Structure formats: structure tokens, C-alpha cells
Amino acid sequence: MKTLRTQVGIIGAGPAGLLLSHILHLQGIESIVLEKNSREDVEAIIKAGVLEQGTVDLMNRIGAGQRMMKEGFHHDGIILRFDGRDERIDFPSLTGGKKVTIYAQHDVNKDLIKARLDSRGDIRFQTRDVSIYDLDSSTPKIRFRDKQVSGTDEVTEITCDFIAGCDGTQGICRPSIPAGVLKIYERLYPFGWFGILCKAPPSSHELIYAMHERGFVLVSTRSPDVQRMYFQCSPTEKLDEWSDDRIWAEFRARLATNDGWAPKEGPIFSKTVIGMRSMVVAPMRYGRLFLSGDAAHVVPPTGAKGLNLAASDAQILARAITAFYKSNRDDLLDQYSTTALRRIWKATRFSWWFTSMMHSFPGADEFQHRLQIAELDYVTGSKAGATALAENYVGLAIE
Ligand code: RFL
Ligand code: PHB
């Protein structure tokens, strides 16, 4: 068995793992990142699109923000569409100048991988059979197979000071924690999102979140000629029952306004159904294993918080690990879970609230629908209501 030594072993090269690795590197702390997928796959995954102001600031601070600043769309607000009309939430005026940036998650991954490799970072793609041991000792270990680098199929063991479990919802880190340690809080929603990518010009300068009796719609974007749109569907919706014509008819019906607005249509080249749930595990630590990002929590995509939470977890964990090495302190490691969970629970609440206000619930009656319209009317018509939405959407501060 081949053996290696590093300070922080990181499982998963998504936003959480890549950000953690790069922030640590800038503090002079070494890490090895293990990723089960190929670099091409990590750089092609279709997921998030909205970066909070704090995530944008972080990308810039660590020197990975150049392309994002040039190619991303910097949005000052969102449109809430309900009852056939549009109301705009203006972020800068409500949040002291903050905004969001629309920039695809695979581009974030691409820029972070480049930043890591340019600074000779160690990321191993297509690793197999990753497992973790001795988590409650001061030398936790990772074993894996890595044909690409070693050229053989033999097992490599890395001895670490810490392991960061950044391996998303399907990873091995969370399930490696002994039974009874974690408490899992979960809420399933009785609907999903049908997501499409199409070749068309943008339909709107800002994202449109539309509430309609037939169900929610989100109009987002990816580039001047690729658009991202979603409509609320059944969690078990069958993709092959939705022709392009049927999809566009559904978008037109749900997006109709009193003044005859219609989306710009074009060929659809990607269709997916996404399930919706909220999940939080606590604590986000077991011995020397720390969970970050989707490995520890999941939010429904309505509030656009998942990637942004991965980014704030990475910052909080990097700060704690840095204090350990630089100032011989382990109090921030001890507080990591509590500090991260306060922000996570606020984002979980916001995502749940925004989801509940915007979607049609199966079996809901006209009374419920009118309450949702009244809530939207209040949120968009009151400065207090609009501010609460705006400051959560652009992102709350990290403590
Ligand atoms: P990721 O991105 O899932 O990365 C985890 C990585 O770990 C790897 N892995 C393993 N590697 C080695 N060994 C193993 N055994 C492994 N098991 C797994 C995986 O291959 C992967 O590369 O988790 P991370 O880094 O925590 O990042 C979280 C985000 O990906 C996620 O929260 C967001 O995509 C959620 N989300 C959104 N978040 C936002 O902030 N803004 C948005 O606008 C937004 N829109 C969305 C979204 C998620 C969506 N879907 C598909 C659920 C829109 C959608 C449609
Ligand atoms: C996206 O562009 O994929 C996107 C935007 C906003 C959301 C969720 C997803 O709330």
C-alpha cells in the first residue's frame, strides 16, 4: 500500500472542497482533494446559477474571480410575478449596495480547479473506493484507489490532521459517522422542478420568480444565447411526456401577464426533473472529520442558497483550521458546527419560506392561493417585507 501525508484531506471537488482547498493554500496549509468524477464531468455539471455578494467577494479575494466578473451577469434585483403583474425587488437600495451574480456552478468549478492547479494544488480525479478511518484520533486516514496518478490499481492511504467531507448528498463521509451521533432534520416537498436549457436570447434582464395557480415558474439565464428555466412539476414527472411544444405552452400559460408578456422561445437541449427537500444534519463534525456543503445540508433551489452555503461553510472551516495551525487554537474548530449551523438554519428558513410562498401545494384551495397572493402583495409593497427578502437573497453575513 502506498502512503501519503497531508494536513487536510478533502473528499469532493465541488464548490465546498475546491474553495476550502484554495483558501487553505493561500494560508500556507496543504491539502489533497479526492474526486470520484473526471475533471470534464466536474466542469460540465448543470446546477446552480446565483452567487450571493459574499460568494462573489470570496472568489475575488482568493484570485479566482476574473472570468466571473467579466462573463457573469450582475443583477440588481429580481422580479416577482403574481396575479398577472410584476413587482421588482431592488437589492442595492434595500441592502446597502449589494447585488447577486448569475454565473453557472460548472464555471465556478472550472475557475477554482484552474486556480488550484496553477498553484500546483493536488486534486485527484476519478478516484475510486474512497473510505475514511480513525476519525476520532489525531491522525485520521483516507484510503482510495487512483489508477490515473499511480498507474496501478493499488490502494493509497493518506494520513491527515483533518478530513473535510465535501462530497455532497451522495458522498461517503456522512454515512461513515457512527450511528446515533448525527441528528437529521428533514422536510420533503410534494413537488419538483422541471428544468430546461434552451438556445434563445434572454427573456428578461432580471430573474423572474412567478407564482401561478398552475404552479411556480423561474426564468433564469446562463449566457446571451443560453437560457435556464424551470417549472414546478410532480416529483415523479416523466421527461418523455414533455415535448418542446408542451413545455413552451406550459411556460406561456404560467408566465402570462395582464400586458401580454411572453418568453422568448428556442430549441430545448436539456431537460431534467429535480426533487425538492430541506435537510440539515447536526453536528457537522465527528472527531477530526468536518462536513461542509451539501454533505451536511440540502435546501430547495428556490432561494438559490446551496452553493452559497457551501462557500460559507468552506470559509468558516478554513478560518478554524487556520487558527489551529497559526495560533495553536482549537476553539474555532470546536465552534465550527454551531457557527455554520446558525447561518445554515437561516438559509433553510428562507428557502422554505420562499418555496412555500411561490409554489402551488397539491390540494390547496382558493383561500390558500389568495393568502399567497396577499403575502406577495405585502412583501413587494412594504419596505420591511421587501428588505427581509432582499437581505436574505443577497446573503446574510458570516459571523
Ligand atoms: P457538490 O457540488 O455536490 O460536490 C460534491 C463533490 O463530491 C464528489 N463525490 C466524491 N468524491 C470522491 N469520493 C466519493 N465517494 C464522492 N462522492 C461524491 C462529487 O462527485 C462532487 O464533485 O457539493 P458542494 O461542493 O457541497 O456544493 C453544493 C452545490 O453543488 C449545491 O448546493 C447547489 O448546486 C445547489 N443549487 C443552487 N445553489 C445556489 O447557491 N444557487 C443556485 O442558484 C442553485 N441552483 C442548485 C440550483 C441545485 C440544483 N440541483 C441540480 C439540485 C439549481 C439546481 C437545479
Ligand atoms: C438557476 O439559474 O439555475 C437558478 C437561479 C435561481 C434559483 C435557482 C436556480 O433560485
Task: Explain what this protein looks like in three dimensions.
With 399 residues, this protein is of the alpha/beta class. It is 36% helix and 28% strand. It has 12 helices and 21 strands. The strands form 4 sheets. Strands 7-6-15-16-17-14-18-21 form an 8-stranded mixed beta sheet. The protein has a 6-stranded mixed beta sheet with strand order 9-3-2-13-20-19, with helices on one face. It has a 4-stranded mixed beta sheet with strand order 1-12-11-10, with no helix packed on it. The two termini are 43 Å apart.
Oligomer: single chain
Number of helices: 12
Outline, from the CA principal axes? globular
Strand content: 25-35%
| List of distinct ligands in this structure | 8-demethyl-8-dimethylamino-flavin-adenine-dinucleotide, P-hydroxybenzoic acid
Structural class of the secondary structure composition?
alpha/beta
- Poorly predicted runs of 5 or more residues: none
Major sheet: 8 strands, mixed
- How confident is the prediction overall: mean pLDDT? 96
Radius of gyration: 22 Å
> Which range best describes the helical content: under 10%, 10-25%, 25-40%, 40-55%, 55-70% or over 70%?
25-40%
Task: Determine the N-to-C terminus distance.
Answer: 43 Å
Give the spatial strand order of the biggest sheet. Answer: 7-6-15-16-17-14-18-21
Number of beta strands: 21
Q: Any descriptors?
A:
single chain; about 400 residues; alpha/beta; eight-stranded mixed β-sheet; six-stranded mixed β-sheet; 12 helices; globular; binds 8-demethyl-8-dimethylamino-flavin-adenine-dinucleotide; binds P-hydroxybenzoic acid
